[in-house]
Amino acid sequence: MAAAPLDVVGIGNAIVDVLAHADDGFLETHGLAKGAMTLIDEARGEALYAAMGPGTEVSGGSAGNTMAGIAALGGRGAFIGKVRDDQLGGIFRHDIRAAGVAFDTAAANTGPTTGRCLILITPDAQRTMNTFLGAAVELTPDDLDEEAIRSAQVTYMEGYLWDPPAAKQAFLAAAKIAHGAGRKVSLSLSDPFCVERHHESFLELVSGHVDVLFANEVEICSLYRTESFDDALQQVRGHCEIAVLTRSAKGAVVLAGEEVHVVDAEPVAQIVDTTGAGDLYAAGFLAGLTRGKPLYECGRMGAIAAAEVISHVGARPEADLAALVDQRLHEA
Amino acid sequence: MAAAPLDVVGIGNAIVDVLAHADDGFLETHGLAKGAMTLIDEARGEALYAAMGPGTEVSGGSAGNTMAGIAALGGRGAFIGKVRDDQLGGIFRHDIRAAGVAFDTAAANTGPTTGRCLILITPDAQRTMNTFLGAAVELTPDDLDEEAIRSAQVTYMEGYLWDPPAAKQAFLAAAKIAHGAGRKVSLSLSDPFCVERHHESFLELVSGHVDVLFANEVEICSLYRTESFDDALQQVRGHCEIAVLTRSAKGAVVLAGEEVHVVDAEPVAQIVDTTGAGDLYAAGFLAGLTRGKPLYECGRMGAIAAAEVISHVGARPEADLAALVDQRLHEA
């Protein structure tokens, strides 16, 4: 990826999604928390997979989805994450490259298989995720492409990276490299359960290492141990340079120093599958930010990209996102 | 699968489909014959995959799709085909079982990987297929589940089985077992190029070993080396007990001795992807036949199942086929 400077480098767990439809009864029978991401081990993954209906496999991973979105918006991006040298790893690599994202992290040739996320889509379009991290736990600071990180305006990382023990070291090392080069560090809190698992670390991260924070309402309330969105909003102001707080259909709030913007959600004809909504919001926002757009426009770009991804099954964009954003921004 | 008698046993190449959108220029650049199935080797497969856009992986294979359709219509079915003990093989096995089809053929533990079909969907909803047979070439007569074949009313095989050299022996052995038990043997001609590759064998098969033949217009014309559909129709009459000739939007003709039925195509709001149309026509028809339905109703069931599968991406049914068929038959 060397030469050309990048807009964004994304670091995350490299995951292939296995999507299947299920009803609420299935979630109850298997004790699954609707809408959440639960970490599972390989045995649990196999038992759950055996019980699931026929699936569709598509490349996923939170930061991977975000990078695919940034590329779809015309941004220059690279991804750092760990797959194994197996078939699903090959599929992950093919898809993210085919989406226009550089991906050169070496595959592990021993250890667990490429990570996968068993996603149950219920009739209400909610997705319930069960992740076997697999080879993603093998990501270490040695996998960081320092040159790419130094060249990128933003290094973006998913909170899920805090789950595999060695990956968090990679996370901190990447933040150090980025800041050393005068670049921005961005974090998505990923999931309320993830925030619970790593509460102290995340609080410290947000105030000490993160310039641009993405969180949804439940995540930011979990971070500040409050039930009031407004309370969480007051606390996060000033903790990082830019905080982007998303609230599904209620839109988003963008905070930056004295600046505050309220961005409406983009209308969607039919919500089919909410997988990837947060990932694509971040993609739209960062694509705008790295092009020097005003923060309100960055928020609109995030809302438009999120609306596209929830209108179909799967967490990566299907429409021509760049054209869609261009059209919607000019309508307004 | 032993005990309970089966409606249909399907034997075919076990294939995982990799679907991606492409334009006509892509087909030209890579010398691909639109709408056809071309056999490719592993190296060609890798080059083509590298050039393709991001994909979606779903279990496929012609007879595999048909069996999934029969199960969706409430039929009892089993599948015989060869995967490897790799990730895509595990996905194939999971999906066909999750669809309600028994599948107990042992996976190969050496040799080529599980077969895959790189499918390019052009904006006109045509699918252009490029198949690396992989482990499917390892199917031999030893893989046949004789008890299942003897118990099934119909043993259904895809013409594509003639491509892997050892599989054709399995094909003939299966036909012998089925006929020995007083059962019917059914064949789909699969593809005009496949008919060309195995012209003499197919002619002999159709007149000597096949009770129920499925062919589309181009395939049946290719079999009888004629350009006239009516000419082909006259020739196939009497060559096998039942011949089902499908003509896309022009509907189908069902021939059985003196009996002739003309079945209209089922209306489709939007044709999205024609992958699996023939496979699901066969599924609907055989589901009717094994329940003792009159031939015209079997044809209607085929048309309804085919219409469902071409209304979405992917070659296996997504709607509740049994309910759909029930509703449509009662409307008429």
In short:
2 copies of one chain form a homodimer. The first copy, chain A, is an alpha/beta fold. Helices cover 39% and strands 20% of the residues of chain A.
Description:
The structure is a homodimer of 332-residue chains. Chain A is of the alpha/beta class and 332 residues long. The first copy, chain A, has 13 helices and 14 strands. Chain A has a 9-stranded mixed sheet. In chain A, helix 9 packs across helix 10 (229-236). In chain A, 57% of the residues are buried. The model of chain A has no long low-confidence stretch (mean pLDDT 94). The A-B interface holds A 18, 20, 49-50, 52-59, 68, 86-88, 91, 94-96, 98-99, 113-114, 314, 316 and B 20, 49-50, 52-59, 68, 86-88, 91, 94-96, 98-99, 113-114, 314, 316.
Residue stretches of chain A low in confidence (pLDDT < 50, at least 5 long) are: none
Instruction: State the helical fraction of chain A.
Output: 25-40%
Q: What's the architecture of chain A, going by CATH?
A: 3-Layer(aba) Sandwich
Q: What number of structural domains do the residues of chain A give?
A: 1
Considering residues with a beta carbon less than 8 A from a beta carbon on another chain, report the largest interface and each chain's count: A-B, 26 and 25 residues
User: Biggest β-sheet of chain A, characterized?
Assistant: 9 strands, mixed
H-E order of chain A: EEHEHEHEHEEEHEHEHHEHHEEEHHH
CATH fold naming of chain A: UDP-N-acetylmuramoyl-L-alanine:D-glutamate ligase
Structural class of chain A: alpha/beta
Q: Oligomeric state of the chains?
A: homodimer
| CATH class categorisation of chain A | Alpha Beta
Number of strands of chain A: 14
Mean pLDDT of chain A: 94
How far is it from the N-terminal to the C-terminal residue of chain A, by CA? 37 Å
Q: How much strand content do the residues of chain A show? A: 15-25%
Radius of gyration of chain A: 18 Å
Global geometry of chain A? globular
| Count of separate DSSP helical elements of chain A | 13
Strand order of the largest sheet of chain A: 6-5-1-9-10-11-12-13-14
CATH level 4 superfamily of chain A: Ribokinase
